[in-house]
Specification:
Length: 268
């Protein structure tokens, strides 16, 4: 079957993604109510009891809102690093000891034939991470909520076939928006979120012939729009001399209110 995934929903109000290889199905984050997560799973014909576990990127509410209820309802193991566990324990409630799993930052773990590796990112959380997923020669990377892409982040995701990558905001929309300046400064800072332009700059460094598709994720509903994100990311790539044909590389949308279609990583 190979590696496939769907971004169940992504944005400033909630985030969850499914990764599946026919043997194992994992959810990354659970940033919605348990009821909403069940609805999103049903839209992709998955039942909660079919999940094999939940991976957590960090403890902010738009990533863990439904984590405790979903994990308890379906008796699921939850994987996070120690600092994230400490930061989120009060928010998610009691998780049985046997389901409290530690996956250290930079650690790789095999779930059957699916290998998962975490890597550190820059965000204002206890110890935030992104994840790479491997099935044979296929590689998918999920990387949102980062203020900037360090050399280590670039190395972690560089040889991916498909990326789920943050394009959070348009800088001018954010600057002109209604948020207080301290929040704007946080978003724009190195521990905040990637702008469209920063995402385009990053992709221009990474595009090497292997990356086939990038899903633009975690878009702000206040300070971004899908059409604008795609146009700005592509423009930033072209400004840096990175031109491509749609047959070679595609930018794709994610949605705050519905899942993306299942996408098989190996598909061209």
């Amino acid at each position: 079957m190979g590696l496939r995934f769907t971004v169940l929903s992504s944005g400033s109000t909630g985030n969850a993604t499914l990764v599946d290889n026919g043997e194992v199905t994992l959810m990354i984050d659970a940033g919605f109510s348990a009821r909403r997560i069940d609805e999103l799973l049903l839209e992709r014909e998955v039942k909660g009891q079919e999940l094999n576990g939940i991976l957590v990127t960090h403890e902010h509410s738009d990533h863990i809102k439904g984590l405790g209820p979903v994990a308890r309802k379906y008796n699921l193991p939850v994987y996070a690093n120690e600092k994230t566990w400490s930061a989120m324990e009060k928010a998610i409630g009691q998780i049985p000891d046997e389901n409290r799993r530690v996956l250290g930052t930079g650690e790789a773990r095999d779930f059957g034939s699916l290998r998962v590796e975490s890597f550190a990112i820059s965000h204002d959380a206890a110890e935030p991470v992104g994840y790479c997923f491997y099935d044979g020669k296929e590689k998918l990377s999920v990387c949102t909520d980062l203020g900037y892409a360090s050399d280590k982040v670039k190395a972690a995701i560089a040889d991916s076939d498909v990326l789920v990558l943050e394009a959070n905001h348009d800088i001018e929309m954010l600057r002109m928006g209604r948020y207080p300046w301290n929040i704007k400064r946080r978003i724009l800072g190195d521990m905040g979120h990637l702008s469209n332009e920063a995402t385009g700059e990053l992709l221009s460094e990474l595009l090497n012939g292997r990356i086939k598709r990038t899903y633009l994720a975690h878009l702000s509903r206040e300070h971004n729009m899908p059409d604008l994100a795609r146009m700005a990311v592509r423009g930033a790539m072209e400004d840096r001399g990175c031109f491509y044909k749609d047959s070679e590389f595609k930018l794709r949308d994610t949605y705050y209110d519905r899942p993306t279609p299942w996408d098989t990583v190996a598909d061209l």
